[in-house]
Amino acid sequence: MASTAPIGVFDSGLGGISVVRQLAKDMPHERVLYFGDSANAPYGVKSPDQVQRLSFDIVERFVREGVKAVVIACNTATSAAVNELREAYDIPIIGMEPALKIACDRGDVPSDPHHIPQRVIVAATPLTLRERKFAKLMERFDSDNEIFKEPCPDLVEIVESGRLGDHDLVMRTLHGYFDQYDLDRIDSVVLGCTHFVFYRDYFRELLPERAAVIDGNEGTVRHLGVVLESLGGLAPEDATGSVELANSDPSERIAALSRELLAA
Fold it and tell me: Which of 1, 89, 190, 254 is most solvent-facing, going by the fewest CB within 10 Å?
């Protein structure tokens, strides 16, 4: 049976709006409630216990609002809280992880039985890269590929402060993180934080043309759709989709920035 109940999407701040954009594009009949926790951002430098507590507070809010599923549009919160949230609630909880598999699978050529080792930089928050969840993901691929972990906390702050359009600041920050690598030998950069998806054009400017820029948003939304379809929970095709934005920071600056990022 179809369901017009909303889908809850949350993030440590504004980065998850990049997931909402993908969701609205790929599942246009769904109602989406977005909650950004900018008052407590960034999550990536907090302890796992702190992130868990904040995540539970947000999901409890969504449950009171009658959501049919929750998307944790935050790699950090997924690392710290997804298992505990799934144990506590009986609605689908969809998490995110850096799209390392997609990056490494680029070394599999159908006409060649031999895997071509990939050199991959995973850009993410410090907590995402420290957590056991990412270590287990990396263990699946690091024997056949060369994987570099690059924490980029300042990229979160630039989005949250509304300075994404400051080209000089952004490029200076990216060079500060990535000039240590021989980028001509890098096959791909994985954007392991939803905030970083807003930097796609900047990464394209930074990287050689042969290097791929990869994020997990499309795969996450696809997985959500599969799960809801299996439960008969998709919205009917004649339903009108919508996006409602909320944030723990009630300022007009954050509200305006949220609308701007959604429309970008």
Answer: 1
